[in-house]
Amino acid sequence: MTEVTWHGKNRLKERVGIPKRASQKQTQRAFEKGISIEETAGSLRNYLDGVFLKEGTANNLRVWSGSVYVFTDERLITVFSLPSRFRKTELTIMKKKKENENNEIE
Fold it and tell me: N vs C: which end of the chain shows fewer Cβ within 10 Å?
Protein backbone atom coordinates (compact mmCIF):
# COMPACT_ATOMS: atom_id res chain seq x y z
CA MET A 1 0.00 0.00 0.00
CA THR A 2 1.46 3.33 -1.02
CA GLU A 3 1.72 6.31 1.27
CA VAL A 4 1.34 9.94 0.17
CA THR A 5 3.25 12.78 1.84
CA TRP A 6 1.67 16.16 2.47
CA HIS A 7 3.88 17.61 -0.27
CA GLY A 8 2.85 14.80 -2.62
CA LYS A 9 -0.86 15.52 -2.08
CA ASN A 10 -0.33 19.20 -2.80
CA ARG A 11 1.65 18.48 -5.97
CA LEU A 12 -1.00 16.05 -7.23
CA LYS A 13 -3.64 18.73 -6.77
CA GLU A 14 -1.52 21.49 -8.29
CA ARG A 15 0.14 19.68 -11.20
CA VAL A 16 -2.19 16.81 -12.08
CA GLY A 17 -5.54 18.18 -10.90
CA ILE A 18 -6.32 15.28 -8.56
CA PRO A 19 -8.25 16.27 -5.41
CA LYS A 20 -6.47 15.50 -2.14
CA ARG A 21 -9.12 12.95 -1.17
CA ALA A 22 -8.37 10.92 -4.33
CA SER A 23 -4.58 11.14 -4.03
CA GLN A 24 -4.15 7.75 -2.34
CA LYS A 25 -6.07 5.88 -5.05
CA GLN A 26 -4.26 7.68 -7.90
CA THR A 27 -0.88 7.10 -6.29
CA GLN A 28 -1.58 3.39 -5.81
CA ARG A 29 -2.67 3.08 -9.44
CA ALA A 30 0.49 4.87 -10.66
CA PHE A 31 2.71 2.68 -8.50
CA GLU A 32 1.13 -0.59 -9.67
CA LYS A 33 0.44 0.17 -13.34
CA GLY A 34 2.98 2.88 -14.15
CA ILE A 35 6.12 2.48 -16.22
CA SER A 36 9.30 1.94 -14.20
CA ILE A 37 12.79 3.01 -15.30
CA GLU A 38 13.66 -0.60 -16.17
CA GLU A 39 10.86 -0.70 -18.75
CA THR A 40 12.15 2.34 -20.66
CA ALA A 41 14.93 2.86 -23.19
CA GLY A 42 16.59 5.60 -25.20
CA SER A 43 15.97 9.27 -24.50
CA LEU A 44 13.12 8.60 -22.05
CA ARG A 45 15.47 6.36 -20.05
CA ASN A 46 18.14 9.08 -20.06
CA TYR A 47 15.60 11.66 -18.89
CA LEU A 48 14.38 9.43 -16.04
CA ASP A 49 17.95 8.63 -15.00
CA GLY A 50 18.57 12.37 -14.73
CA VAL A 51 15.45 12.82 -12.61
CA PHE A 52 16.51 9.89 -10.46
CA LEU A 53 19.93 11.45 -9.82
CA LYS A 54 18.44 14.90 -9.21
CA GLU A 55 15.95 13.68 -6.60
CA GLY A 56 18.23 12.78 -3.70
CA THR A 57 16.03 10.43 -1.68
CA ALA A 58 14.08 8.89 -4.58
CA ASN A 59 14.60 5.22 -5.27
CA ASN A 60 11.52 4.50 -7.34
CA LEU A 61 10.06 6.40 -10.31
CA ARG A 62 6.88 5.71 -12.25
CA VAL A 63 5.52 7.29 -15.42
CA TRP A 64 1.74 7.26 -15.46
CA SER A 65 -0.79 9.24 -17.46
CA GLY A 66 1.62 11.96 -18.60
CA SER A 67 3.21 12.48 -15.18
CA VAL A 68 6.35 11.33 -13.38
CA TYR A 69 5.71 10.06 -9.86
CA VAL A 70 8.73 10.16 -7.54
CA PHE A 71 8.69 7.61 -4.70
CA THR A 72 10.94 6.63 -1.83
CA ASP A 73 10.12 2.96 -1.46
CA GLU A 74 6.29 3.11 -1.62
CA ARG A 75 5.96 6.69 -0.37
CA LEU A 76 5.08 9.40 -2.89
CA ILE A 77 7.38 12.39 -2.56
CA THR A 78 6.35 14.54 -5.52
CA VAL A 79 4.88 14.44 -9.00
CA PHE A 80 5.46 16.53 -12.11
CA SER A 81 4.53 16.53 -15.77
CA LEU A 82 6.35 14.38 -18.26
CA PRO A 83 7.79 16.56 -21.05
CA SER A 84 5.62 16.43 -24.16
CA ARG A 85 8.39 14.97 -26.31
CA PHE A 86 8.14 11.71 -24.32
CA ARG A 87 4.34 11.29 -24.39
CA LYS A 88 4.34 9.19 -27.58
CA THR A 89 7.02 6.91 -26.10
CA GLU A 90 4.97 6.53 -22.92
CA LEU A 91 1.89 5.51 -24.90
CA THR A 92 3.90 2.97 -26.91
CA ILE A 93 5.35 1.37 -23.77
CA MET A 94 1.94 1.29 -22.07
CA LYS A 95 0.41 -0.38 -25.12
CA LYS A 96 3.13 -3.08 -25.12
CA LYS A 97 2.74 -3.54 -21.38
CA LYS A 98 -1.02 -4.01 -21.73
CA GLU A 99 -0.55 -6.53 -24.57
CA ASN A 100 1.90 -8.53 -22.43
CA GLU A 101 -0.58 -8.58 -19.55
CA ASN A 102 -3.34 -9.80 -21.87
CA ASN A 103 -1.08 -12.54 -23.27
CA GLU A 104 -0.22 -13.74 -19.75
CA ILE A 105 -3.91 -14.03 -18.85
CA GLU A 106 -4.77 -16.18 -21.87
Answer: C
Domain definitions of the chain by residue range? 3-105
What whole-number percentage of the chain has pLDDT above 70? 98
Distance (Å, whole) CA 92 – CA 44: 12
For 74-96, write each residue's pLDDT tens digit: 999 999 999 999 999 999 999 99
